[in-house]
Amino acid sequence: MSRGLKATAAFALAVLLAAGCAKGSATRESAPDGKSTIRYFTFSAAPDHLADLDKIIKAFEAANPSVTVTVETAPYADYFTKLQTAIAGNTAPDTFELNYESFVAYAASGALADLSGEAAKDDLSVYAAKSLDTFKRDGRQLALPASYSAVLLFYNKDLFDKAGLPHPTADWTWDQEMAAAKKLTGKGVYGDFQPVQFFEFYKALAQAGGAFFSDDGKRATFNSPQGVAAAKHLLDKPGTVMPTVAQIGGTPDYDTNLFKQGKLAMWHNGIWQFAGLKDVPFQWDVVVEPAPVKASAVFTNAVAVSPGAKNPAAAYKWLRFLTASDVTARTRIDSSWELPPLADAKAYAGYFDQGPPANRRAILDAVASATSPPVIVRQQEMQDTVTKALEQAAAGKTPIQKALDDAAAKVDELIKQA
Amino acid sequence: MGNRLVYAALVLAGLVMLAPFGWTVLASLSPGGVVEWPPGGSLGAYGELLRAMPFWRILVNSVVVAALSTGLQVGTSALAAYGFARLEFPGKEAIFVVYLATLMIPMQVLVVPLFIEMRSLDLVDTYAGLLAPTIASGFGVYFLRQAVRQVPRELDEAAVIDGAGHLRVFASVVLPLVRPALATFAIFSFMASWNAFLWPLVILRSPEFMTLPLGLANLHGQFTTEWDVVMAGSVVSVLPILAVYVLAQRHVIAGVARTGLK
């Protein structure tokens, strides 16, 4: 190797090393002029709402010139792997997002800073009280609610009109829903679609008037008669008014496409579907789910501060802005990016009149009867256990009562082990 | 007759292997990712892919990272393989067993300790941190050692008599003869780096460092996913590795043919 070549190679290596060790934009900490940098980790922004989040950050930085916010994103399915590693490695982001189902485990493990001190200096009446309380543990505010989505009954108006049936209303019962579904099923059209899984079950259980856990939270009680009724309500649908698990065959978004093609009359799904249904060639609307006892699934995301955050006051300020500022409320509503957890319905100004669906106010009915998912530290295992029991019963392998008894026993174990 | 049956069976097996890829292509061309007959011909998902993420930057990242990781692994593994196959030193067998043992430890177990190690080296969120754990490969050392042991020692001895040292023997005699093994291992390590998800997910933070699997995963939302866009991304991400495979495969065949002539 000639001397010139060697020198070039050495230089190239040096450049490569320097470039290889350079930190990325999300990690650089040398903020100029005594500015402090807040890292924010989120799963709900990518892929569709990065620009919306950026708008909120810009507004926050304009109002707080001494603080810079850097964003890291990860897809929901992998978010918690990354967050756990970062926490274990002592490099947790200053602020991060959590959904309600994982909040409990993180709160129990001490990974969330107590915000009560900052909150006491602040007026939190802008938040809906219920959503604020959801993220309190032992009187400590461990996270701020950031957004929520509700599950409603979607229905295809054209199919109802063609069959000469009255549209579903807020006071429908399960029997009315089932009777209509049966009349609407046929000629390539399915009457109803409600997945057989944990999240539908806990809600159906509440709608049947049952409780998932005993009052002290130490025992699973979903194998009660109400639990059996709830499971029956779900299991009656596949094969009669809805395709079976075998027909769906794991096809992603099977139900979404069925509804979009006008081949589904009623559909239990969340308001996150609104944006995707903008251009369907038929009339549709939503209504709060039919039930003996009104109860609706509401999914809430929250944001928290890491105990190791370098500037907790600035971190809190950022989260307060991110969750409850006018800019955020407007940005969320304009872009259908879930809903802000605010008390004053005026914050939604315009949202209810956006249509379709015309009856967006059904969301308020859902919130009024909101039922949070049952949560334990070993959440994922519990969800899988319940879903599997329901599938066993759906396949006719186990009688409903026995499947629920077995699942309840397993969940009792999970509660004890945590 | 027998040959025909064999060919028919092979073609059938080939088609079965190809079916998921065919499905991926069809789904990427169908709005909503729902494959119907006749198949859709919409390229909208590919345009959406470019809009949803800095696709070219991500592609370049993946190519550079995979190429560097492959080069480093093949280099270090070949050197170590030569050492284990040809040199005598105390504790050789024991050290080799330790190398083999590393093959039994799954990545999931290593993630947190590795992450803490990278943090103390201050390499979190850097290309160097992404590459570091892939510089040495227990599998590569094992695989190439077997190949080096197949090379007749007489060839080394002839070179030594001609005055060659270990480095010369390694570079001029052994390496050319184990080329098929090198090519095979290069394909393995390129694929491993190309498909790597867990480690890049954990060690990288900045969007400009993202590799393809991370970019594709980012297309999944909390509640909904645009499957046609995910499929379009998958199609594009398969193409470079297909190219690498076709190129390296020619080397494999050439290597086999040459040694067969001897």
TrEMBL record, chain A:
Signal sequence region: 1-24
One Pfam family matching this protein: SBP_bac_1
Superkingdom, taxonomy of origin: Bacteria
Alphabetized UniProt keyword annotations: Cell membrane, Lipoprotein, Membrane, Palmitate, Signal
PANTHER family cross-referenced by the UniProt entry: ARABINOSE-BINDING PROTEIN-RELATED (PTHR43649), POLYGALACTURONAN_RHAMNOGALACTURONAN-BINDING PROTEIN YTCQ (PTHR43649:SF33)
Name used for this protein in its record: Sugar ABC transporter substrate-binding protein
Organism, scientific name: Sphaerisporangium album
TrEMBL record, chain B:
Top-level taxon in the UniProt lineage: Bacteria
Family label: Belongs to the binding-protein-dependent transport system permease family.
Topology of the protein relative to the lipid bilayer: Multi-pass membrane protein
Coiled coil: none
Keywords: Cell membrane, Membrane, Transmembrane, Transmembrane helix, Transport
Stored InterPro entries: MetI-like, MetI-like_sf
SUPFAM superfamilies: MetI-like
Localization, UniProt: Cell membrane
Listed name of the protein: Carbohydrate ABC transporter permease
Domain ABC transmembrane type-1, residue spans: 59-248
UniProt entry tagged with the keyword Membrane: yes
One Gene Ontology cellular component annotation held by this UniProt entry: plasma membrane
Membrane-spanning residues: 58-82, 94-115, 127-144, 182-204, 229-248
Transmembrane recorded as keyword: yes
Gene Ontology biological process terms, A to Z: transmembrane transport
Annotated source species: Sphaerisporangium album
PANTHER family: ABC TRANSPORTER PERMEASE PROTEIN MG189-RELATED (PTHR43744:SF12), ABC TRANSPORTER PERMEASE PROTEIN MG189-RELATED-RELATED (PTHR43744)
CDD domains: TM_PBP2
